[in-house]
Specification:
With about 280 residues, the protein is an alpha/beta fold. Helices cover about 35% and strands about 15% of the residues. The chain is globular.
Length: about 280
């Protein structure tokens, strides 16, 4: 299995597709792994170089305790991981696709290094996951609710993580046959564990990027599910209205936090393909 060294920790990655083709780099979300992008890799690797990887603490990558690697578990740490991986693979420019917690890394790399990012696709995006001010009316999680969530994740993870993951996929009805993508998300979240999940969220979720959204000039496709309770569509719409470059906004009604898997995967892939072709 391919790994690269990141500050003496092993980061798992995959690099498939034609090496001479344009690159797409996928950044997964909290507690999940690169496996969530299986339908995208299957679709895009025929005509793009597809790069996926597991963030530190996730999937098949190393999982040091959060206090031991606190800086690497930050948004800056995640950005550095992406940039180091691309440099090690000799990739100078790429499309960046971020989902959920992967969105800030993708967006900030595009803002800081616009020459490295040809297009940006943000799925389930919010510029701030958890509010620090209880009087802030932005559509994100208020501080008191966040503290309850963090305590539950840390202290009751084996009892609550399944309900947490199920909440990202409201289109699934419990009792029906378990789709592969949902079983993968459950397995990945269990593997991540409560200590890392809680620690990472405490570090990254309160960081507020609202003041930087307008500085992003990269062509951006924002995608959200109409029933996304983790990052409400209103948050993505707020960001869309303030992005500084060319942009497009797609809402998949009836879907939740991951509208790129399951029955909607083909439609999502076709919409992204059309968006990327429109830039060439």
């Amino acid at each position: 299995m391919p790994f690269f060294d990141f500050h003496s920790f092993k980061i798992f990655y995959n690099d498939v597709g034609p090496r001479t083709a344009p690159a797409i780099t996928f950044i997964h979300g909290w507690t999940c792994s690169s496996k969530i992008f299986k339908p995208q890799v299957a679709h895009f690797s025929s005509h793009y170089r597809c790069i996926t990887f597991d963030l530190l603490g996730h999937g098949q990558s190393d999982k040091p305790p959060v206090p031991e690697a606190r800086q690497l578990y930050s948004h800056i740490g995640f950005q550095e991981c992406v940039l180091d991986l691309l440099a090690s693979l000799g990739v100078e420019k790429t499309v960046l696709v971020g989902w959920s917690m992967g969105c800030p890394a993708a967006a900030e790399i595009a803002r800081r290094f616009p020459e490295k990012v040809t297009s940006l696709v943000l799925i389930g995006y919010t510029p701030v996951f958890i509010l620090s001010d209880p009087n802030d009316t932005f559509p994100s999680i208020p501080p008191a609710a966040a503290e309850t969530l963090w305590n539950s994740v840390k202290n009751s993870f084996p009892q609550m993580y399944k309900d947490l993951v199920f909440s990202w996929f409201p289109e699934y009805t419990p009792g029906e046959p378990m789709p592969e993508y949902l079983q993968t998300a459950l397995d990945d979240t269990a593997l991540c564990g409560g200590d890392i999940a809680e620690g990472v969220s405490r570090i990254v979720s309160p960081e507020d990027f609202r003041g930087r959204v307008g500085e992003i000039k990269t062509r951006t496709l924002l995608v959200t599910g109409g029933r996304d309770g983790a990052t409400p569509p209103e948050a993505a719409k707020w960001a869309f209205e303030r992005l500084g470059g060319q942009k497009k906004f797609i809402v998949y009604e009836g879907l939740g936090h991951a509208p790129f898997v399951g029955a909607n995967a083909d439609r999502f892939n076709e919409d992204v393909d059309a968006f990327l072709r429109s830039s060439t």
